[in-house]
Structures are given as C-alpha cells and as structure tokens.
Write a structure and sequence with these properties.
Radius of gyration: 25 Å
CATH class of one domain: Mainly Alpha
Largest sheet: 5 strands, mixed
Strand order of the largest sheet: 3-4-5-9-6
Length: 710
C-alpha cells in the first residue's frame, strides 16, 4: 500500500517535548532563511523542492519542534474550562509546521534517500520520539482531554467530532498516559529504541537490495528471457558502465528473470539473493533487529495492560482481537489449501512431463514451470499483453476511469516543483463542481535511492481550518519497468494491476471531505484502508474499461476480446497457491506479534514454527521472510497484514454491486464516493460499508472470484 513506512513514522513523530531548547537568535535565523519553514508562496502551497537542500532538514525539524512545544504549552497553561475546541481541536492543530516539515522529510527519505538523509533520520528520531512521549504522558494535558471525554454525552458533537475525541483519548492511553514512575520511563525508553530499530531495519533492507547484481556476459545465459527483460538489463549495464547485462533485485528485473530464465543455476542464485536479504551475517543483517523489535513491542503492550502486541494493536481494527484474526486466517487457509496443493501438483506433474527429473520443485523452479504451464494452458504471456499496457496510456486510462466514475479531471502541472526528474505532477479537479481536489506526485521507476515496492502517502492531508478546505498533496510511488532506447515503458499485467491498486489509495485521499486531519483520507482502520485500493483492481479485466486505453503501442489496435478472455481465464490460475501465500504472510506477522512471552533463538526456526501450516514447497535453509518484511517491521502493518485478505472480502462484495448494475453506473459510483471514499474515518468502517452496501459483506463473492465455490 499504500501509506507505508513514512506515514507511520511521521504520525508517530507528531507529538511534543515541552521544554524549549533552541536559542532565540538561532530560531530567528532559521525562520528567516530555511525554505522548509518559510511561507510557501508556491502553487497550492506545495513544497519548494528546488530550494530544499539536505542541510535544511535537521534545523527545520528542530525549529518546528520548538514551535510545536509552544502550541502544546498554550493548551496546558490555558486555565479556561477544557472544551472540545480549546483542548481536542487545539491538539489536533498543534505542531502544524512540524507536520509539514516531517511530512516532506520522511517521504523523501523513502523515495529519494541518501546516506546523508538516513543519518539525519537517525539523528532526529530520538527528539521526535521524546516529543511524542512527553505530549502523551503529560498528566495535566491528559487530565484536560479526559475531562472533555468524560462529558462527551453531554455536549453536542457531530459523528466526526465524536470519532476525533474517541481517537484522541484512546491515543493518549495507548501511548502511556496512565503509566506511572518506572513504567513510564521504561515505556519512553522502549519507544525511543523501537523508532531507531525501524529506521535501521529499513536502511538494511535497502542496502541489501542495492548490494546485489547478477552480471551476465554470455548470451547463452539469456536463453528464455523475454526481449524487454534483456533490453532493460542492457540499459542497466550501460548505466553502471559494465559490459553485458545486469539483473537486480528490483521487481521489474528480478521477476522476469526468476520466471523465464532457462538457466536453473542462475535462477537459484538470484532467488537466494532475494530471499536471504537481511540474513547474511553482514553489516546489513536484520535478525537481531527482528527479535528486538518483537520483544520490545511485546513489553510495550504488556506495560499498557495487554497480553500481546497484537491484542494492543487490534483494539482499533475491524477484526478487534487476535482470536478473530487467527480464526479468519485459518478458515481461509482451510478453504485455500486443497486448491493450493492441487495447484502445486499440476505444476509438478507438468514439469516432470517436460523432463524435470528432481524429486520436487524447488522455490526457484515454481515461477518458471508455473508460467510455462500457464502459457500452454491459456496461450498467454507478458509478451502478448505488455504491448497493450504502455505506461502513459495506462495512466490516461485510469484517469479516464476516475473521471467516468467520480467526475475527476487530471491536468499535468509543470510549474509545481518536484523532488526528482522522474516525477510528474498532476492537478485534480471535480469537473461538475469546478472544485480543486488535490495534487498527485507520480513517481514510477526504480532507482537506488528508492525502496522497493509501491505505495501511496501524502505530503499534506485534507482538512478544514477556519472555514478553508485545505486539499491534500498526494504521493504515489512505484517501481515499474523503465523505458528503453527502443521501447516505451510497457507494463506487465501485474504492474498494471499495481497501478490500479495504488491509485485506489490516491482516490481515497483525494476524495476526502472531512473537517479534521486525524480522520481524513486514508486515516482509517488498517484492515479497511485496502478496500478502495483492492476495489480498483476489479476493473483490470473489464473490456469496457480496457477499450478506453488498452491499444497496441505500435499498431493502435485495441486489445482483442480473445486476449482479454485469456487474461480472465488465467486469473483463477494458481488462486489456491496465491491465497495460501498471502495467508502465510499473515501467519508470519501474527507469529511475531501475538507472542505473550519474549522470544529468543533462531529467526528462521521461529518463522517456520509460526507459518508451517501454509508452506507448500521444500524449505530452503537461509531463506527467511522476517528479515525483509518491511510491511510489519518498519511499515505500520504489524498485526495487520491479514488486512489485505480481509479487504478482499469487502472489495469483492462491493464490486458485485457494480457488476450487477454496470461497472460505470453513476448512481453506484456516487454512493461509493459519498459513503466510502469521502468519509475517511468519520465513522466505524462497518457503518460506512453498510451505508454503501445496505448490509454487511459475506465471503461468497471472494470465494466465487477465487474459484473456490461456484
């Protein structure tokens, strides 16, 4: 997703130390000269990236911390009776400059980092964490919040205001407001250590990813690889000034190699490199970090009165508790495993029929043989589909879909400054209302300064301040196949699907019509946030939608119905295996975060113990997910990875309404925007979903879509 590491880090950071530390003359100098804290006289108050240098970040953050302390101190010393406005809303708006500055910094540290930025992150994180702890553990401040919370039934509040009040009060408690003495100091120490460990974990992952490259100089080693993968590898080699072809662990390079290379030994080599990241007993090793993070999270939760970190996290999730999450995972696993085992048998039998003479498929074999079977079974391959998914046309098609559904218009804005030449900036308007909705920074291609994966986050959230609707500044970051000298960027079907997914998050952020930032846009329950993104994936194979943009980049021919049908037919291929894999990741997550006593020992062994019921292929010594599972160890999804499957139930059920009434049905789309996309976290997610659907979701649509039931 989506809002990943940086949003979590930033939100964790927005809190307060209450003692001023900066000299007045130093503060005055920063205020007068630092572009991060000066007024932004730019289009829509976007960040002046052309003026921002690395050396500006740390002074700006320290200055903004001082300003945030003043904001919070004003609430503490206010002797008027605490009210929703002078306490809860004042807190909501405290540290506005800090939000702006750290919003830029942490986003850039994820998408365009450097050694210098990573060092700054390590330097400032203790101060930001102390700021958070001192705010949440200030007894006088919490007393004011509690006073307002205790009279919530006696004051007139909107549903959104009640949600903000509830979130604020419970946030104080979950961040240690009730702790006393030694427990309070221990909590502060743990939170400091966790903040730094998450940064270190992420830094190690990026370093491991960048450290590996497979350099080939013999054309025989390229046999089986599609032309687009070979061309891209040649471009990478040229950029690195080496002879031959260079393959990396970046998704657009790694996936074609592991899927198509006929050189089994090289497939094994690159697979091992990818699947042992963080587990190489070198400077970038993450095993100790995994153990430390899991145990510190447990101790933090137990200090607050919870049995496990999962229990602590899930109190504000739709799933509510670990028992329900594990029941959900296990029930879906029971439904998936018979199909998963059959998928594996099909691929194994096929491989053996083609001369594979090993006892079992190894993990570096599965993608290769399953793709060959898929191609034979459905007569489909990326070489057939990629020409119809030129990046620019896909982007325009998805823009057109958003216009058709919600009336949004997207216009490139070349006057807005950007943080990297690869970025393109778009201004979004609601055409019918002639209303500005927000800005999108689109950043599509891999580079050494960007972490892997795809995500959406924001430089600024939507909110209303003094009657002004301040619209969001959204960032969408991907790692798609780059253009070459001979071809434009042509997306695989999976990359096209990823675009739809992340754009669903973008629409969630853009459509926000909330008053308060803390519940706006994607600030919803973690197991609800994937609904808008996964919902968009349903359009991927709809011919009505494809005909709007999917044309051959050379001939202009529309994607043939026959090819679309092949894609649809192949969608259910390996659904059991794919489902089991996703549930395996959920079990790994819960295994680390539902512990009730500290763990020690070998990370691989612990991971296997927790997830073995979802394993299908032979175990490979040294391969481990936990040391590179950024979603849960540095990205805010701890005890929440199940949410992707949880949201699949919601998205399949929601899209069934569109299928029944027309995929572009304006009435249904308006309802989805009104009741889901625009509402943020104003109300409980199930209340929002029922307002759209008229009932709670069932598993039926997902099981049918997966081919598990008819």
């Amino acid at each position: 997703m989506n809002k990943l590491t940086l949003f979590t880090l930033v939100m964790t950071a927005f809190s307060t130390i209450l003692v001023a530390q900066m000299k007045p003359e130093e503060a005055a100098q920063i205020k007068a000269t630092n572009p991060l804290v000066k007024s932004w006289n730019t289009p829509y108050q976007t960040a002046p990236f052309n003026s921002i240098k690395n050396e500006h970040y740390k002074p700006a953050i320290m200055y903004a911390l001082e300003e945030a302390k003043k904001d919070v101190n004003a609430i503490i010393v206010n002797r008027a009776t605490p009210t929703f406005e002078n306490t809860i809303i004042a807190l909501e708006r405290a540290g506005g400059l800090l939000s702006r500055v750290t919003g830029v910094f942490f986003n850039i540290n994820e998408s365009n980092t450097s050694d210098e930025l990573q060092k700054i992150a390590e330097d400032i994180t203790p101060d930001l964490t102390s700021y958070s702890n001192d705010l949440n553990m200030n007894p006088e401040l919490f007393a004011k919040v509690k006073q307002v919370y205790d009279m919530r039934d006696d004051i007139a509040l909107t549903a959104e205001q009640r949600m903000v009040l509830d979130k604020t009060y419970k946030g104080f408690i979950k961040n240690g407001a009730l702790l006393q003495g030694g427990a309070k100091e221990e909590y502060k120490k743990i939170s400091q250590e966790l903040s730094l460990l998450s940064l270190k974990y992420n830094k190690n992952n990026l370093a491991e990813n960048n450290a590996y490259s497979l350099v080939l100089t013999n054309k025989k080693d390229l046999v089986g690889l599609p032309k687009y993968a070979i061309d891209a590898a040649a471009e990478t080699a040229k950029a690195r000034k080496v002879k031959g072809w260079v393959f990396t662990l970046d998704y657009p390079s790694y996936i074609p190699f592991i899927t198509y290379s006929e050189n089994r030994e090289l497939r094994k080599q690159i697979w091992m490199a990818s699947n042992t990241k963080g587990n190489n007993n070198n400077a970038n090793d993450n095993k100790d970090n995994v153990i430390k993070i899991a145990n510190l999270r447990l101790r933090m939760a137990q200090l607050l009165g919870y049995k496990s970190y999962s229990e602590y996290v899930l109190t504000d999730r739709m799933a509510e508790n670990p028992t329900k999450v594990l029941g959900f995972i296990n029930n879906l696993l029971d439904a998936s495993m018979p199909f998963a085992k059959n998928d594996l048998k099909q691929v194994t039998d096929y491989a053996k029929s083609k001369g594979f003479n090993e006892d079992a498929l190894q993990r570096w074999d599965f993608s290769y043989w399953s793709e060959k079977l898929k191609n034979e079974k459905y007569s489909i391959s990326p070489e057939m589909t990629k020409p119809y998914f030129q990046l620019e046309k896909v982007r325009n098609g998805i823009f057109a879909l958003a216009e058709k559904l919600y009336g949004y218009e997207f216009t490139e804005n070349t006057t807005i400054e950007k943080y990297h030449p690869d970025v393109t900036v778009y201004e979004v308007k609601d055409k019918a209302k002639n209303k500005f909705m927000g800005i999108i920074y689109m950043d599509f291609f891999p580079r050494a300064s960007k972490r892997s994966g795809a995500w959406m986050t924001s430089f600024r959230e939507q909110k209303v301040v003094d009657g002004e609707d301040i619209r969001p500044l959204i960032q969408m970051v991907c790692n798609f196949t780059k253009p070459t000298k001979t071809e434009p960027s042509l997306l695989t079907f999976d990359e096209y699907n990823t675009f739809l997914h992340e754009f669903g998050h973008v629409l969630h952020g853009l459509s926000s019509e909330c008053t308060y930032e803390s519940v706006a846009g994607t600030s919803v329950y973690r197991d609800f946030v994937e609904l808008p993104s996964q919902f968009m994936e349903n359009f991927a194979t709809e011919k009505e939608f494809l005909d709007m943009f999917a044309v051959h980049y050379k001939t202009g021919e529309k994607i043939p119905q026959e090819l679309v049908q092949k894609i649809i037919d192949s969608e259910k291929y390996l659904q059991g295996y794919t489902s089991a894999r996703q549930l395996y990741l959920g079990l790994v997550d819960m295994g680390w975060h539902n512990i009730t006593a500290p763990v020690s020992g070998d990370v691989e062994t612990i991971e296997r113990r927790n997830s073995s019921k979802a394993e299908l292929l032979p175990i490979v010594a040294g391969s481990v997910m936990s040391t590179q599972f950024g979603h849960i160890f540095s990205g805010g999804y701890a005890s929440g990875y199940y949410g992707y499957k949880w949201a699949e139930v919601l998205d399949a059920d929601a899209f069934s309404v569109f299928k029944a009434r027309g995929i572009f049905n304006k009435e249904v789309a308006t309802s989805f925007r009104k009741n889901i996309l625009s509402q943020g976290g104003k109300k409980h997610p199930m209340e929002l979903y029922k307002a759209f659907r008229g009932q709670e979701p069932t598993n039926d649509a997902l099981l049918k879509r997966s081919g598990f039931i008819k």
